[in-house]
Amino acid sequence: MAVWAGAALSTLSPLHAVWLTLTAAFLLSLLLQLVPPSVLPSSALFQDLIRYGKTKSGGPPRPAVCRLFEVPKRYFSHFYIISVLWNGFLLWCLTQSLFLGAPFPHWLHTLLRILGAAQAQGGELALSAFLVLVFLWLHSWRRLFECLYVSVFSSSVMHVVQYCFGLAYYVLVGLTVLSQVPMDGRNVSVTGKDLSVQARWFHVLGMMMFIWSSAHQYKCHAILGNLRKNKAGAVIHCNHRIPFGDWFEYVSSPNYLAELMIYISMAVIFGFHNLTWWLVVTCVFFSQALSAFLSHRFYKSKFVSYPKHRKAYLPFLF
Ligand SMILES: NC(=O)c1ccc[n+]([C@@H]2O[C@H](COP(=O)([O-])OP(=O)(O)OC[C@H]3O[C@@H](n4cnc5c(N)ncnc54)[C@H](OP(=O)(O)O)[C@@H]3O)[C@@H](O)[C@H]2O)c1
Q1: How many structural domains is the chain composed of?
Q2: Which of 35, 125, 171, 283 qualifies as a FRET site for 291, CA 20 to 30 Å off?
């Protein structure tokens, strides 16, 4: 056991440490939500840092000073603008290196090494990392489109810390993907000149899973958007209503479930064995579980007629 723990620690890169810390923070926050307030009274600052949007109203009374740190939740679109630009740039660097043999910029290579890229190369296929980066980029485009044209935001808010976290998050995710590319100095190392020889069955499976989860996430965001529109598509209010249809029949936050499935589809594209990516998936699992739990509680406290069979996040389970 001690030998195993020692070996695990010696391969722990800064990236692993970051994802593990974030995972632990979300898990702990979720566990603290399960403790009744009579046993452990919650601090207003803590609740302010974990709640955003509609669930902000469900926490303990917030001191007036909290309002100074509020940012409109519609700024979610900024996360995806950053992601489209940053991950588009990383994809461009990777494409140049894969197809034209151009080395990564010096600063990017150094940054990847600092994050532990050298430790990460356990025989990963360059094609897998390339496909994951392409899908991350497409995912960001779709989410940006949804924020701008599908979702109807109310005047709900988030904490400025959550906003900064959201901006940094997509920068980190992109770097995590790129750190998995097998490198030879500043160039991508590809066995065989033709990338297509690296194609595997799990790339196809992951791609199908990605499209399926993305389609459901889009559908769920459209259902939420339509709750605030009339038949002609005009926005008529900004209240929160009970959503029905698609995966909403099973869980309160199917968009969070779909997000998890999207990250799992990328783990499949990585061939199931990429530990770093599974850490990302675990982090997303707990961050979305926390938001889903708070949303479910919001719906149950606001609507007496809320469907009893509906779970928070995982159909039939949680
Ligand atoms: N990868 C990650 O770590 C991560 C982190 C956070 C979010 N995300 C993803 O980003 C997406 C959006 O997240 P979110 O937390 O903003 O989702 P959300 O709370 O479900 O909100 C999505 C949209 O629907 C509106 N809405 C929510 N509940 C509604 C209701 N009952 N009636 C009418 N409109 C309603 C919201 O408006 P208002 O809230 O303005 O009222 C917002 O415009 C999700 O798919 C999530 O998975 C990913």
Answers
A1: 2
A2: 171
Q: Are residues 214 and 275 in the same domain?
A: yes
Cα-to-centroid distance, 239 and ligand 1 (Å): 13
- Taking 70 as the threshold, does the pLDDT of residue 3 lie above it? no
pTM of the model: 0.95
The answer to whether residue 20 sits within a structural domain is: no
260 lines ligand 1 (CB under 6 A): no
Q: How confident is the model at residue 8 (pLDDT cuts 50, 70, 90)?
A: low
In this structure, the answer to whether residues 179 and 76 fall within a common structural domain is yes
C-alpha 26/C-alpha 258 separation (Å) is 18
For ligand 1, atom 23, the nearest C-alpha belongs to 151
272 lies in the same domain as 246 = yes
Last residue of a domain, one of 193, 225, 259: 193
Spacing, Cα 193 to ligand 1 middle (Å): 43
165 lies in which domain range?
64-193
302 within ligand 1 shell (Cβ under 6 A): no
Counting ligand 1 atoms within 8 A of each CB, the residue from 140, 224, 235, 288 with the most, and so the one to mutate, is: 224
What are 190's strand-pairing partners?
none
Strands (E), the chain: 70-72, 157-159, 183-184, 187-188
